[in-house]
């Protein structure tokens, strides 16, 4: 339980740490720390995926952390979306015609990888819920698919937690 909670909290805070590193004073310190942040991001993502997959507890606990992490990341995703949109709207400036699409694609990849990492909690909760008998096959398939798309993943996480808690109270 402790490793699940610790890795989930680290994942909740990790994107915001990356933004904070961009605002460090001094050019070299911020650059060095940011270059260290990139490989550490892969390690944090891998650690969370492994922790979610190796969790031996109930599906409800995984679904709870899935929803909590996704809710914590909403401001991060909105910020990247708005900044990316601002770059795309600034393409009227000739210097940004080539840079803006690249920045928008980088932001999209960052958001998608973060969403898939958090979805590992939800997908594993869906599999465990199906195995425990608290989710039907159809509900498990729909909730699993919802965890693969933006915005739908948060809706799917809410529905998943509600269904798992309702079934737990009934039994």
| Low-pLDDT runs | none
Biggest β-sheet description: none
Average pLDDT, all residues: 91
Helix content: over 70%
Shape: globular
Class by helix and strand content? mainly alpha
Number of helices: 6
Based on DSSP secondary structure assignment, what is the total number of beta strands? 0
Give me the strand/helix succession. HHHHHH
Compute the separation of the termini in Å: 23 Å
Radius of gyration: 18 Å
Strand composition percent: under 5%
Can you describe what's shown?
This protein is 84% helix and 0% strand. It is built from 6 helices and no strands. The chain is an all-alpha fold and 171 residues long. Helix 1 (2-22) runs antiparallel to helix 2, helix 4 (99-132) packs antiparallel against helix 5 (137-146) and helix 5 (137-146) packs antiparallel against helix 6. The chain has helices at 2-22, 27-54, 59-89, 99-132, 137-146, 152-170. Keywords: Membrane, Transmembrane, Transmembrane helix. Pfam families: DUF6652. The chain crosses the membrane at residues 7-26, 32-55, 76-99, 105-127, 139-162.
Short summary:
With 171 residues, the protein is mainly α. 84% of the residues lie in helices and 0% in strands.
What are the salient characteristics of this protein?
membrane, transmembrane helix, 84% helix, globular, DUF6652, 6 helices, transmembrane, 171 residues, mainly alpha
């Amino acid at each position: 339980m402790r490793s699940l909670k610790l890795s989930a909290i680290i994942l909740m805070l990790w994107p915001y740490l990356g933004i904070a590193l961009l605002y460090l004073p001094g050019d070299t310190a911020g650059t060095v720390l940011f270059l260290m942040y990139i490989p550490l991001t892969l390690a944090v993502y891998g650690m969370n995926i492994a922790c979610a997959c190796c969790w031996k507890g109930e599906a409800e606990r995984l679904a709870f952390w899935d929803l909590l992490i996704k809710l914590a990341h909403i401001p991060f995703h909105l910020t990247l979306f708005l900044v990316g949109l601002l770059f795309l709207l600034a393409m009227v400036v000739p210097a940004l015609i080539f840079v803006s699409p690249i920045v928008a694609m980088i932001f999209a990849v960052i958001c998608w990888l973060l969403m898939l990492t958090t979805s590992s909690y939800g997908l594993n909760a869906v599999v465990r819920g199906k195995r425990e008998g608290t989710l039907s096959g159809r509900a498990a398939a729909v909730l699993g698919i919802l965890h693969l798309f933006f915005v739908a993943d948060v809706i799917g996480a809410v529905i998943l937690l509600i269904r798992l808690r309702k079934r737990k109270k009934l039994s």
